[in-house]
UniProtKB/TrEMBL annotation:
This is DUF4293 family protein. Keywords: Membrane, Transmembrane, Transmembrane helix. The chain crosses the membrane at residues 55-73, 85-105, 125-142. It comes from Hymenobacter negativus.
Amino acid sequence: MIQRIQSVFLLLLALAMLSVLALPLWHKVDGLTHQELTLTAFGFQAQGLTPAGTGPVWLIGVLAIASAAVAALEIFQFRSRAKQLLLGSVNLLLIVSTLGAMFYFSNKGEQLLNLKLEGQFLMGFYLPTLALLLNLLANRFIRRDEQLVRSMDRLR
C-alpha cells in the first residue's frame, strides 16, 4: 500500500539512490596544473590528465541501482512484512556497500592528483547516508505494523 508511511520512506530511498547516479560524488582541483578530477557513479571525469588504474568505478552505479530496485520491490511486498524486513536487510547491505565503494574510489582519486590538496565530497556522496536513515525508518515502521497485527491476533 502506497499510503503507509514506510512506503513513503522507501520511495524517497529509491529516489535518493537514483539521484546518486545523476550527481557528482567527489571533486578535486589542482590549481597549479589546472587538472580536475570528478568522481561520478560510473567513472572518473578528468580534465588535464588520464585516470589510469582506478578500477571498476561503475560498481558504485550498479550498487545504487540495485538498492533503488530493492526498495521499489519492497514497497509492493506489503502483504508479507517478513519479506519486507528481509528486503530491508538486503538493502542495508547494498547501501553500506555503495558507501564503501564511494570511499574507496574517492581515495583512489586522491592519489591521482597532488597529494597535498584534498578533494571535496559533493551532494551525491551524502545521499546514501540519507537513504540509510530512510531504510532504518521504514524497517522500524514495518516492525511496528507486524507487532500491531500480532496484538490483534491475540485479541481474537
